[in-house]
């Protein structure tokens, strides 16, 4: 496996990810030209993407490829060109926060009649205009506080400007169309590609990722609730997503349905018919809920969606009503929420509670308590990209309401 870093990092940014992956793979990292221990080209044109691809190909050939490629930022941007032009060198490609420049250009042209949408994406790259201005950014890089904020050395910051000046704007034309470093427009990618979406990334958003869709034959995507430098701040989670991508575990979303004997079975079957991998069970208490969560995590992974389905309580005992309708939900959430938070991939809890035929006072009390519980959970889990929905379906619409809530979240962001 080869890991390619971006601006303004060195190969050291992969330290945490590499340690985790090295338990299974032979991991190779290298410094891009002008970064870390690598020599810098003599002029700006030496940073053209075509030259970066030549360097990457040389590394892969020295390793004895083909390899699994993982790229972040400019390491990913060059990776797109590499897997398109030299598919023989790569088994798979994991792209993290680094779109193909040609894909983005094509996306902008396809959406030229939607200026508001295009402007919303383009404004994310405001900083690039500053990088293209002569001298000014070099002066900014002299400020120690700026370098500390970016976790970067002045050499990497100064040399890294060449990546933008050689590949963005007017100068990029000559750099890409002359010499060995030349590259053509975007090409179809036959290598399996997985995109890791960083939901708190201020620079790369969903549209940047979607720009690749017309160009990739095999494309999957997953999310990590983290910022642009997730490879440094969330190495365990990033490494796990890389492994899952290589193992092909991102093709179907995992949905857990509890209360399978109280109407949850129909919910599970409908979601499974829609392509989800569904695991269902009835859990009676906190210990059972925790054991179920541990078993699901070990056998299938951490779910994207957990549906806590609470059926109608037909008895008159208040304790039974509270245990079933309130503590049953709380136990399921307490069992799965830590797993979802630790995975940092976001997620969705859907809680359903149907109206009782009897025990009206108990129903009203648990309904009010559930509303407050869900309100608190929303506040606690929102920072982790996990959403919470509460549904009180009327009549026989529980399945339709739950599926609608699950799919609405699926189409949304994150």
Automatic annotation (TrEMBL):
Recorded GO MF terms: hydrolase activity
Keywords: Hydrolase
SUPFAM superfamilies the record matches: alpha/beta-Hydrolases, NAD(P)-binding Rossmann-fold domains
Residues annotated as domain AB hydrolase-1: 1-101
UniProt-listed PANTHER family: EPOXIDE HYDROLASE
Protein name: Alpha/beta fold hydrolase
Native source organism of the sequence: Saccharothrix hoggarensis
Lineage: Bacteria, Bacillati, Actinomycetota, Actinomycetes, Pseudonocardiales
């Amino acid at each position: 496996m080869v890991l390619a870093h971006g601006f303004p990092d060195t190969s050291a940014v992969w330290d945490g990810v590499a340690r985790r992956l090295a338990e299974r793979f032979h991991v190779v990292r290298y410094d891009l030209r002008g970064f870390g221990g690598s020599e810098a080209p003599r002029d700006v044109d030496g940073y053209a993407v075509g030259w970066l691809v030549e360097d990457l190909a040389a590394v892969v050939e020295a390793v004895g490829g083909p390899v699994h490629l993982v790229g972040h930022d400019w390491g990913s941007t060059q990776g797109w060109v590499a897997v398109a032009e030299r598919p023989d060198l790569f088994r798979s490609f994991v792209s993290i926060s680094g779109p193909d420049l040609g894909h983005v250009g094509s996306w902008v042209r396809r959406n030229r009649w939607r200026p508001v949408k295009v402007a919303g994406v383009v404004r994310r790259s405001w900083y690039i205009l500053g990088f293209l201005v002569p001298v000014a950014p070099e002066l900014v890089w002299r400020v120690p506080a700026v370098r500390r904020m970016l976790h970067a050395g002045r050499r990497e910051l100064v040399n890294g400007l060449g990546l933008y000046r050689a590949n963005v704007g007017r100068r990029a034309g000559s750099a890409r169309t002359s010499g060995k470093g030349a590259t053509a427009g975007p090409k179809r990618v036959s290598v399996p590609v997985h995109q890791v979406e960083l939901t708190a990334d201020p620079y790369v958003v969903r549209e940047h990722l979607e720009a690749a869709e017309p160009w990739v034959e095999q494309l999957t995507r997953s999310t990590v609730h983290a910022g642009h430098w997730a490879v440094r701040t969330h190495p365990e989670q990033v490494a796990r997503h890389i492994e899952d991508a290589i193992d092909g575990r991102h093709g179907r979303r995992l949905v857990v349905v509890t209360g399978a004997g109280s109407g949850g079975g129909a919910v599970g079957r409908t979601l499974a018919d829609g392509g989800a991998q569904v695991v269902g069970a009835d859990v009676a208490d906190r210990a059972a809920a925790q054991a179920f969560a541990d078993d699901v995590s070990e056998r299938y992974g951490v779910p994207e969606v957990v549906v806590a389905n609470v059926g109608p309580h037909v008895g008159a005992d208040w304790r039974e009503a509270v245990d079933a309708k309130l503590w049953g939900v709380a136990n399921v959430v307490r069992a799965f929420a830590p797993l979802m938070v630790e995975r940092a991939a976001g997620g969705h809890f859907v809680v359903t509670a149907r109206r009782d035929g009897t025990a009206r006072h108990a129903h009203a009390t648990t309904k009010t308590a559930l509303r407050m519980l869900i309100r608190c959970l929303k506040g606690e889990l929102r920072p982790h990209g996990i959403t919470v929905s509460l549904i009180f379906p009327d009549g026989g619409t529980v399945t339709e309401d739950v599926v609608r809530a699950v799919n609405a979240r699926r189409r949304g962001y994150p």
